[in-house]
């Protein structure tokens, strides 16, 4: 389980990105890079990092399922992910 502070910080970043998305798009279209620099740093999309929805883990993230590899394995073994079954040959 990730630290709660890291998960909360990432959620705040996501909120900032959504808040400034339209303004950022307009400034880029105009070519006003000085105004872009005055926006908050965390309002940039590139500062976001994908985290597992269940555990908050930042590494081993499977974007299709939005969970980490560890949580994915647990859910797959429990049969909670439709269409996924353990390979055997």
From TrEMBL:
Q: Does the keyword rRNA-binding apply?
A: yes
Looking up InterPro entries in the UniProt record yields: Ribosomal_uS14, Ribosomal_uS14_bac/plastid, Ribosomal_uS14_sf
- One Pfam family, short name: Ribosomal_S14
The entry's keywords: Ribonucleoprotein, Ribosomal protein, RNA-binding, rRNA-binding
Query: Does the entry feature the keyword Ribosomal protein, yes or no?
Result: yes
Please tell me one Gene Ontology term that the record gives under cellular component.
ribosome
Coiled-coil residues are none
Q: What does this protein do?
A: Binds 16S rRNA, required for the assembly of 30S particles and may also be responsible for determining the conformation of the 16S rRNA at the A site.
**Family statement:** Belongs to the universal ribosomal protein uS14 family.
Q: How does it assemble?
A: Part of the 30S ribosomal subunit. Contacts proteins S3 and S10.
**Name assigned to this protein:** Small ribosomal subunit protein uS14
Organism classification: Bacteria, Bacillati, Bacillota, Bacilli, Bacillales
């Amino acid at each position: 389980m990730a630290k709660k502070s890291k998960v909360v910080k990432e959620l705040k970043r996501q909120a900032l990105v959504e808040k400034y998305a339209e303004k950022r798009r307009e400034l880029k279209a105009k070519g006003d890079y000085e105004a872009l620099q005055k926006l908050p740093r965390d309002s940039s999309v590139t500062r976001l990092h994908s985290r597992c929805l269940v555990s908050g883990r930042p590494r081993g993230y499977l974007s299709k399922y939005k969970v980490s590899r560890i949580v994915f394995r647990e859910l797959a073994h429990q049969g909670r992910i439709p269409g996924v079954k353990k390979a055997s040959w």
